């Protein structure tokens, strides 16, 4: 049996009368990279937020590493929700770094507060990740002193510092100038080579095609088409998918 990290079944989410996710089902296996593509307003970011407990679902089931986060709209108790939350990390579009902390503290803070690591151990971990991101010389800098690409690499390091089983990226390059996009895509490629399980919402179609094992195309809150990356990107079957991809 495959090692399923994320299992989403019949997920729905409404804001008042507006249904933004309708009957969405998919799974992600360990080591797999899932790409989610689609037009703005299709529900991609809301889906990320539901899985990462930043939005409450209206119905359906989410399991993370075999633990039930929510089943048929009913959530687990707070203790289990916290345990499940530590198994996933989310990298936001706009970095969400603490502006009043330097880079090192941005990466150590959650380790000490959430995981209870000692400050020396947290700093060792942070420096390992900064080296991995090519940012060792920036540990004493503040976010305002960094480029957008550097800030995003710090946010990725911060997410990795908690040792998540899966990493979610919500359009990680959308806030970056085109010349900075490549450095973030390289980081994600490096993580994929290390078999990090990832879900990436992206508008970078060539990146999605080349990196992702599986692609989901969403529109209007539903999964319109899904399959392996080459099939969906290069040989889409649905007319809605074809129309979307024709713009790239």
- Sheet/helix structural class: alpha/beta
End-to-end separation: 37 Å
Number of strands: 11
What would you call the shape? globular
Strand sequence of the main sheet, in spatial order?
7-8-9-3-10-11
| Proportion of residues in extended strands | 25-35%
Q: How large is the radius of gyration?
A: 18 Å
Strand count, sense and barrel status of the largest sheet are: 6 strands, mixed
Count every helix, treating DSSP H or I runs of 4 or more residues as helices: 9
**What series of H and E elements makes up the topology?**
EEEHEEEHEHHHEHEHEEHH
Mean pLDDT: 94
Low-pLDDT segments:
none
| Residues in helix, % | 25-40%
Write up what this structure looks like.
This protein has helices at residues 44-51, 78-85, 103-113, 119-132, 148-160, 178-193, 205-211, 229-234, 239-245; strands spanning 4-15, 18-29, 33-37, 59-64, 67-71, 74-75, 88-91, 166-170, 197-201, 214-219, 222-228. With 248 residues, it is an alpha/beta fold. A six-stranded mixed beta sheet has the order 7-8-9-3-10-11, with helices on both faces. Strands 2-1-4-5-6 form a five-stranded antiparallel beta sheet. Helix 6 (178-193) links the parallel strand 8 and strand 9 (197-201). The longest helix is centred in the last third of the chain and has 16 residues, at 178-193. The radius of gyration is 18 Å and the shape is globular. The termini are far apart.
């Amino acid at each position: 049996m495959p090692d399923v990290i994320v299992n989403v079944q019949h997920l729905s989410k409404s804001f008042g009368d507006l249904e933004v996710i309708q009957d969405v089902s998919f799974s992600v296996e360990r080591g797999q990279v899932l790409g989610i593509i689609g037009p703005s307003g299709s529900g991609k970011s809301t889906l990320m937020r539901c899985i990462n407990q930043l939005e409450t679902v209206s119905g359906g089931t989410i399991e993370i590493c075999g633990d039930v986060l929510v089943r048929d709209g009913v959530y687990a108790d707070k203790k289990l929700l916290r345990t499940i939350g530590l198994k996933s990390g989310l990298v936001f579009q706009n970095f969400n770094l603490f502006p009043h902390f330097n880079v090192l503290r941005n990466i150590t803070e959650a380790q000490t507060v959430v995981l209870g690591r000692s400050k020396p151990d947290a700093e060792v971990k942070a420096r390992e990740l900064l080296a991995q991101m090519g940012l060792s010389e920036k540990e004493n800098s503040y976010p305002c002193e960094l480029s957008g690409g550097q800030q995003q690499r710090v946010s990725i390091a911060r997410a990795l510092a908690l040792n998540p089983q899966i990493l979610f990226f919500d359009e990680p390059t959308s806030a970056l100038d085109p010349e900075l996009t490549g450095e973030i895509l390289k980081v994600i490629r490096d993580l994929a080579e290390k078999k990090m399980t990832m879900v990436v919402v992206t508008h970078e179609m060539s990146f999605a095609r080349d990196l992702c094992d599986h692609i989901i195309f969403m529109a209007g809150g539903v999964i319109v088409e899904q399959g392996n990356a080459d099939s969906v990107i290069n040989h889409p079957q649905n007319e809605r998918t074809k129309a979307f991809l024709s713009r790239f």
